[in-house]
Amino acid sequence: MQALIKLSKAIDGLNALVGKAVIWLIFAATIISALNAVVRKVFNYSSNGYLEMQWYLFAWSFLVAAGYTLLHREHVRIDVVNSRLSKRTQVWIDIIGFAFFLTPLCLVTIYLCTPLLIEKYQSGEISGNPGGLIRWPVWLSIPIGFTLLMLQGWSELIKRIAFLRGQGPDPMGRLTSKSAEEELAEALRVEAIRKEAALVQGSTPTPAPQAR
């Protein structure tokens, strides 16, 4: 089991590294979008290549960060029923989901898209839009993204099995933590209370000195 736990940590580290790198893809898409707007306004020139590059980068950032998102349990969850169940039942539901739903989905997607990727690479298919880009680089993001997602699913599966065997921490603990939106709302509430207290303190009249 310890070897599997080490494998889980290695997968977590890989997806954490990928997640941090993805921010540069988003930054690049932002820069290209801004440059495209400036060139179009100043020089009255634009190209479909700029637009396609933006959604290429968006596709890459969205797909390859799927494993990172699962690592931090930020995918959309509907816990109306699940949250009312016992901890062990919740863990078993996740085990079934990762083993019999997520893994087959990723395997089927990789299996179906890989021949298409090879075909587009060999043919050098180019976008039908004037000034468009070659297609295979954006198709490459699909097998890579789903492979990273599947690996992270296996990592989460290992964590839950380790928890049931008493060899790992509670993998569901992060579900009870506050979301980024909740933390921001809490910080704003505390700041508002602090400012209100400062105003009240500042408006309190200073007692006049007593004559001797």
From TrEMBL:
Protein name according to UniProt: TRAP transporter small permease protein
Assigned keywords, A-Z: Cell inner membrane, Cell membrane, Membrane, Transmembrane, Transmembrane helix, Transport
Organism domain of life: Bacteria
Limits of the Tripartite ATP-independent periplasmic transporters DctQ component domain: 31-161
Primary localization class, coarse: membrane
Subcellular location: Cell inner membrane
Family statement drawn from the similarity comment of this UniProt entry: Belongs to the TRAP transporter small permease family.
InterPro entries with a match to the protein in the record: DctQ, TRAP_DctQ
Membrane-related topology note: Multi-pass membrane protein
Function: Part of the tripartite ATP-independent periplasmic (TRAP) transport system.
Natural source organism: Ottowia thiooxydans
Keyword Membrane belongs to the record: yes
Lineage: Bacteria, Pseudomonadati, Pseudomonadota, Betaproteobacteria, Burkholderiales
Assembly information from the UniProt record: The complex comprises the extracytoplasmic solute receptor protein and the two transmembrane proteins.
Nucleus among keywords: no
Residue stretches spanning the membrane: 21-43, 55-71, 91-118, 138-155
